[in-house]
Amino acid sequence: KVLAAKGKREEHQHGSMFSVKTLLDRSCFETIDDSSPEFINFVSILEHVLNHRLKGQTTWFGYESPRSFWDYIKAACGKVPHNCIRSIESMENVRSSRAKGRAWIRVVLMEKRLSEYISSALRDFKTTRRFYEDGAIMLGEEAGLLADTLIGLNTIDFSFCLKGDGLDGSCPAVIDYTPYLKFTQNADSISSDEEEMRTMGSSGSESSTPDKTATAASIFTEQSNLVSKCKRFEQKYRLALEQKGYLEELVRLREAQLSEAVSHNKALQQNLADTHLSHTLEKEQLEYIILELQDQLKSFQSLEQLSADMSLSQTSLEPSHTLNKEETPSLRGLCGSLTSVASYKSLASLKSSECLASPATEISSPGITPS
């Protein structure tokens, strides 16, 4: 059982490496999408690697229900900056956990960040140990090699459609190993065959002269050295090309983050300027209201002072006014009694009657003459 598990791990590891290489080769000729056989095989291998010896979810009754690798990705990759976990969780047409995991693989491949997510998840060893059993690929050294191998996929421009129903397929992913079993003779193998033919020809001609044999052997050794050097240079060139693509993608990602930060900073500065302007306007309005209230207060105080002065003046004028009112009728009566004709006639008649009654008195009063 241990040997079978080990063989399965090696099978998945070599399959993932082969699938990455076939994807890189195919991307040189056409765009990789959901219909590409190389991509379908790669996704199947990656799902098997992420689901290898994944612990089940324990229910209330003590039973373990099957779990998808999406639960592990949510827990282990939550700290990845600018991650796409929330956007995948909010997709309406993707409901099952298996479908969300498949959508995540396609999204991170289009973002060229699959290796970054896997590396971040592996660094969270506590979460990885909590989700996987002993002997899982994600707990071994193969997982680190897998993350390093996935860096090469950052040079491929993937194009996927996430609106289809293919993501909700309940059938498990099936790995097809037949493309890796086919023998395709490349330039390296052809050159090695030519070397073998030349060595065979040189061994058949050993009966010839020693000088010819020595020169042929030296020529073959030089050619073999040149071929090995060419192979090493080719490997270094491929590695440098992959690193160049990875660095270009990293620079593009950092530039996008920088532009986003700059736009966010501009928005904050604009909000700060608007807030400062509104505060300035409010301050001016409050100052104007304070000045207006002060003017109104001064006018009220002057009106109160004026009303107080008027009340004092009224109180000082009231006694003389009443005195004038009392004296005026007596004077008028007096003047009226002296000037009225009736009173004058009554007075004259009275005096005449007095004179008739007492002549002595009339004679003795020289100031009164008969009319």
UniProtKB/TrEMBL annotation:
RUN domain mapped to chain residues: 33-165
Coiled coil is among the record's keywords: yes
Xref: PROSITE patterns: RUN (PS50826)
Region: Disordered, residue numbers: 191-212
Gene3D superfamilies named among the record's database cross-references: 1.20.58.900
InterPro entries: Run_dom, Run_dom_sf, RUN_RUNDC3B, RUNDC3A_B
Polar residues bias locations: 200-212
Name of a matching Pfam family: RUN
Alphabetical keyword list: Coiled coil
Record field: transmembrane: none
Protein family (similarity comment): Belongs to the RUNDC3 family.
Protein name: RUN domain-containing protein 3B
Native organism: Seriola lalandi dorsalis
